């Protein structure tokens, strides 16, 4: 008896939080399962590939240092981009794209670039997620009705009225749509149930109920196609690597890398606010994501990111160490290996409903109006980024948002004030304070050229923090022109700080 007690005590010392981590891992597994399958189906790839990415997120990324409680797997935020890549380049090329993404993340982490992703404007990231959410919702509404969705984001939105008309004329489409709507309703109402009922994740409950209803009433709706775990794992071949000569595919890799890295590191910052444990080491977390995506690429699976839904569920369930996220990968592996036929029972409209709900949560409805009231420039960046993603595509939409953010920052950094003091007699005094850059040249010259031509001018530049070459040259040219009218030469007081 004493030997047994000693063994239990030894295990407790080595794994002091094993009970909490075990419970949390089961919760995360139940949250991740329907999302892994749903993201895969919405991405246009076999459902099992979503489970493969979830397994790698647990067993590979879960073991590595970086963020101790963050959980990785296939993300709804990359669904639109993955679908477009598979549609354009084919499923074999997806492995190459994900592999290259992983290697790029490893290099960026090794170069300690992870922390710089925190410098990306939050409005760009929220605009990116909002644009993804809009396209995701529009696309999944077609899937919920059993209809074929158009390819582009703008066509998905503009085609919705016609799709609604087609659905109203089809009993099968209405049945499918009702099942999808019921799934969304269950997920929304599930949060209002007593606490004990909520131990079962809403997404799993919604899919389970939809599956049961489909079987009980013999509903004629599409279900998940099952191929088997080993059958869908297809490492990219030589032909797929030949696609790297395609400039468009290289742009897709850049988009995957930027978006997956930014989403993961922003998720890490959010998760850090949910617990009091060790803080995220951003460069190591970026390398952990890179290692996971490298393995996913070799297996031909979906790309992974850290996912805030699974991560917050992990923290809320009481996880204390990385063991919970590793164990969730073990449960996904056991499910995929032992119960793959269960996937074939899941109706596609239910998965569409889950992703409509996920897409809705990507749109920051609550923050847009306060942002517009307090920071209209940031609100404009958010909206333009979202609209650009819908109207053009993911990569170019994000680039437009980043460019607009840089322009806004440069404009604000060039804040300048021109103050004119005219006492009626003697020289006119002009004081420039702030940052004089080429962006403010029109304002500077407009104010100076409005000064009386027949009066001497004293130009005081001592209050400038920065004076770029373009402004200095323009001010010198203006001083020469003003002095050429026969008045006293312009007296210039240089900036006090050297090097401006």
From TrEMBL:
<dbReference type="InterPro" id="IPR011547">
    <property type="entry name" value="SLC26A/SulP_dom"/>
</dbReference>
<keyword id="KW-1133">Transmembrane helix</keyword>
<feature type="domain" description="SLC26A/SulP transporter">
    <location>
        <begin position="19"/>
        <end position="385"/>
    </location>
</feature>
<feature type="transmembrane region" description="Helical">
    <location>
        <begin position="380"/>
        <end position="407"/>
    </location>
</feature>
<feature type="transmembrane region" description="Helical">
    <location>
        <begin position="244"/>
        <end position="271"/>
    </location>
</feature>
<dbReference type="Pfam" id="PF00916">
    <property type="entry name" value="Sulfate_transp"/>
</dbReference>
<keyword id="KW-0472">Membrane</keyword>
<feature type="transmembrane region" description="Helical">
    <location>
        <begin position="123"/>
        <end position="147"/>
    </location>
</feature>
<dbReference type="InterPro" id="IPR001902">
    <property type="entry name" value="SLC26A/SulP_fam"/>
</dbReference>
<feature type="transmembrane region" description="Helical">
    <location>
        <begin position="167"/>
        <end position="190"/>
    </location>
</feature>
<protein>
    <submittedName>
        <fullName>SulP family inorganic anion transporter</fullName>
    </submittedName>
</protein>
<feature type="transmembrane region" description="Helical">
    <location>
        <begin position="330"/>
        <end position="360"/>
    </location>
</feature>
<feature type="transmembrane region" description="Helical">
    <location>
        <begin position="202"/>
        <end position="224"/>
    </location>
</feature>
<feature type="transmembrane region" description="Helical">
    <location>
        <begin position="89"/>
        <end position="111"/>
    </location>
</feature>
<keyword id="KW-0812">Transmembrane</keyword>
